[in-house]
């Protein structure tokens, strides 16, 4: 393998993809590459990915590396974080098999992840899943005891200007399969016109599909400036003690916002906000609902999500994976129906036309003559 290209780098993959161009090399420091990060990288079509952390650590069977490899993107793992600092943004990098050079200077080497290596590491990770699951459950229960009062009754819900009461609310998280699921419920969105809430980058997901978010809620670390300026209302997720790092960014842009101090994830408080403001129905797209989802986010448990869903369950439906339930296919009967339907107006118009009536009468006379002639001959 020989690759020569410009390199782009970032500790956070979600920030890197904003600058990465097709044909460049992505330099990341991403332990256990998750599915969402992998798909965002695939969309940018880099020539290769250099990871100064373990793409599969063995903690759990993450799918990211397999997705990248199937997309034809080479992955080189370098178990040396110092290499990340030795390479600067926009350097021209050369990859000769598993060795890295800049200006013909040797930087280091790593392991090229092949299909066999990924399968082996994934199978090893699956063996550890039982231990990880036990720890995950313990952490979930531990934090659930601590957060139950805050989530279930003692939260200070901010007053918002947008009317939610008695309306459907669509909450979009930029999680697994969010694009496919948004596409699958596009008719629902256009007909019902629910309140549109984007959770951080979920706001940009809505813009991508031609919808303007009514509310953007989150810690503001992955939503674009464009989305913040276009949305109708901003709610910043703060820690329980009131600290909110995302506020600084909003203030720098001179935008108005509401603060929502709460434990848990931003998608949790988005659901709580919709519920407490009297939403008639809540639809979630791209949300995190299982252990693997949360491990990919780096969380040790899902206490707040468990409690929130316990509270609002009667009004919540997950649209996650809805695109896989049914995919419309054109069948021969559909084509035949269209053909017959198209003939009906033609037949009606023809029957009403004077010329057509004359032709039909001549045809009838011809048939009658043929019948009489046949009767005489026989």
TrEMBL record:
Protein's name according to its UniProt entry: Uncharacterized membrane-anchored protein
Membrane-crossing segments per the record: 333-356
Residue ranges annotated for the SteA-like C-terminal domain, each copy included: 320-370
Pfam families, alphabetized: SteA-like_C
Gene3D superfamilies hit by this protein: Thiamin pyrophosphokinase, catalytic domain (3.40.50.10240)
One annotated GO biological process: thiamine diphosphate biosynthetic process
Record keyword Cell wall biogenesis/degradation present: no
Keyword DNA-binding (UniProt): no
SUPFAM superfamilies from the UniProt entry: Thiamin pyrophosphokinase, catalytic domain (SSF63999)
GO MF annotations, alphabetized: ATP binding; kinase activity; thiamine diphosphokinase activity
Keywords (A to Z) from UniProt: ATP-binding, Kinase, Membrane, Nucleotide-binding, Transferase, Transmembrane, Transmembrane helix
């Amino acid at each position: 393998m020989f690759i020569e290209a410009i390199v782009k780098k970032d500790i956070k993959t979600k920030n890197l993809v904003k600058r990465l161009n097709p044909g460049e090399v992505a330099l990341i420091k991403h332990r256990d590459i998750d599915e969402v990060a992998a798909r965002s990288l695939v969309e940018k079509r880099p020539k290769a990915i250099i990871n100064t952390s373990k793409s599969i650590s063995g903690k759990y069977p993450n799918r990211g590396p397999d997705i990248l490899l199937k997309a034809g993107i080479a992955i080189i793992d370098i178990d040396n974080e110092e290499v990340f600092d030795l390479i600067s943004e926009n350097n021209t990098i050369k990859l000769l098999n598993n060795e890295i050079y800049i200006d013909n200077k040797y930087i280091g080497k790593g392991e090229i992840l092949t299909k066999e290596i990924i399968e082996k590491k994934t199978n090893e990770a699956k063996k550890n899943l039982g231990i990880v699951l036990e720890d995950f459950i313990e952490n979930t229960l531990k934090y659930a005891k601590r957060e139950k009062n805050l989530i279930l009754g003692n939260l200070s819900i901010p007053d918002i200007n947008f009317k939610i009461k008695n309306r459907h609310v669509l909450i979009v998280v930029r999680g697994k399969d969010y694009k496919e699921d948004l596409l699958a419920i596009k008719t629902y969105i256009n007909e019902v016109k629910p309140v549109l809430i984007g959770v951080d980058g979920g706001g940009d997901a809505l813009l991508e599909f031609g919808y303007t978010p009514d509310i953007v809620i989150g810690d503001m670390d992955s939503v674009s400036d464009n989305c913040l300026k276009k949305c109708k209302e901003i709610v910043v997720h703060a820690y329980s003690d009131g600290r909110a790092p995302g506020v600084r960014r909003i203030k720098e842009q001179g935008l108005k916002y509401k603060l929502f101090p709460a434990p848990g994830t931003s998608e949790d408080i988005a659901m709580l906000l919709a519920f407490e403001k009297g939403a008639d129905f809540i639809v979630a797209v791209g949300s995190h609902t299982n252990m693997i989802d949360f491990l990919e986010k780096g969380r040790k448990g899902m206490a707040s999500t468990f409690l929130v869903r316990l509270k609002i369950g009667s009004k919540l439906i997950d649209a996650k994976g809805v695109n896989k339930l049914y995919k419309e296919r054109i069948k021969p009967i559909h084509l035949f129906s269209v053909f017959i339907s198209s003939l009906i107006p033609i037949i009606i118009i023809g029957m009403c036309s004077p010329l057509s009536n004359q032709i039909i009468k001549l045809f009838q006379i011809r048939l009658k003559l043929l019948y009489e002639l046949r009767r005489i001959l026989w």
